[in-house]
Amino acid sequence: MRLLVAGFYANGPGYPNGRMTQAILSAVPGLEVVDLGYPMSQGLELWKIGKAGLVHAFSLVVQCIVLNARSALRVAVAKPGVQDLVYVRYPSVFFMSFISLFPRKVRPRCVVEAFIPVWDSMFNDRGRGRRGVRAQLVRYMESRSLRAAWRVIVDTEANADFVAQQLGVGRESVTSIPLAVEESAWRGVRHSVKAGNSFRVLFVGTLIRLHGLEVICEAIRLFRSGEPFEFVFVGDGQEAHTLRKLITDRPDLSIVWHREWIDTDKVAVAMADADVSLGVFGGKGKASRVLPFKVYMALAVGVPVVTQRDFSVPARAPAPPVVAVQPEASALAEAIRTLRGALDKRFWLHAEGRRYFDAYLSHEAVLRGWERVLTSRNVD
User: Fold this and answer.
1) What's the short name of a Pfam family annotated to this entry (predicted)?
2) CATH code for residues 2-178+363-376
């Protein structure tokens, strides 16, 4: 059996899933993985396309069309057999737009990544002209593309429901599998629970609405000068002004901001050095449908996680061992203060987090999810 990798796919440090999934599947006996796609440049972040200038955006769209067309041609030349599958890496919308033009009887069976729907990422999630012409065009193209797929892969059950409802895909065709993350970057890094006086709170991620930066900053404002807390931020984004204002208004608090993104292995070390890692506090919508990459990493390293109460997980996974709170400043501040004095609780979160990652989010869990997909090809 062959798995033909296709598309003009994301390849930067912010999109490790496709690269790691391809590596995991390449080790499966009896499965030949053939890359017929084209990687994007490392520095390209897709969410920025929506706010790019017209000329730059047009250039990127042309590039997407040309390279996806070339990839589709390479797949056609490879002549996929009845046992073969085409794995379309994210973003799949352009490649599948070409495939959708062919009659279903001659269309190859495509397994399509939709972990981050392009329409949701570029427009809906960021509240940028979701009803504008560009937004509606992208939504239509993505809906048509995903409906042409044999299987659509997302990361959580809530996202599976979202893709089915918002993009018109049959729910039976959508499968949730854990994100394939770069385990090697932190497998050797371990958090040690400390009983010292100081308490470090870490936030890692893009400063956007999803993460609930306003809630986090309002929670920090509730801490008094002289309390033994240090707040460390790693990342930048659209809501950076909220963090900048906090630092200006409260010079009496210990707040460190590493604005430039750092490598994954350094993020792992930062997590190991922290006493607690913050998840997302964006409330309903996308924030309630995800289990962010940084939570995967925190669980693997063993650092306690505080995140909002509403979240989702992959199929067959129970709720993770985290401190779940309402996405409100007072609830978050109280949880942080409580954890500082709850040493036994932090030891439990440390041990259970690592066990949970190994059982439900590791590469072994990703492979189990894909085995269900590969096996189902003999049923349909």
Assistant:
1) Glyco_trans_1_4
2) 3.40.50.2000
Closest CA to 134 of 72, 60, 43, 236: 60
Whole-angstrom distance, CA of residue 159 vs CA of residue 21: 19
**Hey, do 2-178+363-376 and 184-360 end up sharing a CATH topology, with the first three levels equal?**
yes
Query: pLDDT per position in the chain (380 positions), as tens?
Result: 999 999 999 887 778 899 999 999 999 999 999 999 999 987 666 555 555 567 777 788 888 899 999 999 999 999 999 899 999 999 888 899 899 988 888 899 999 999 877 777 667 665 554 567 878 888 888 899 999 999 999 999 999 999 999 999 999 999 999 999 988 878 788 899 988 889 999 999 989 888 999 999 999 999 999 999 999 999 998 899 999 999 999 999 999 999 988 888 899 999 999 999 999 999 998 899 999 999 999 999 999 999 999 999 999 999 999 999 999 999 999 999 999 999 999 999 999 999 999 999 999 999 999 999 998 876 56
Is the CB of residue 151 less than 8 Å from the CB of residue 107? no
**21 touches 180 (CB < 8 A):** yes
CATH topology (fold) of 184-360: Rossmann fold (3.40.50)
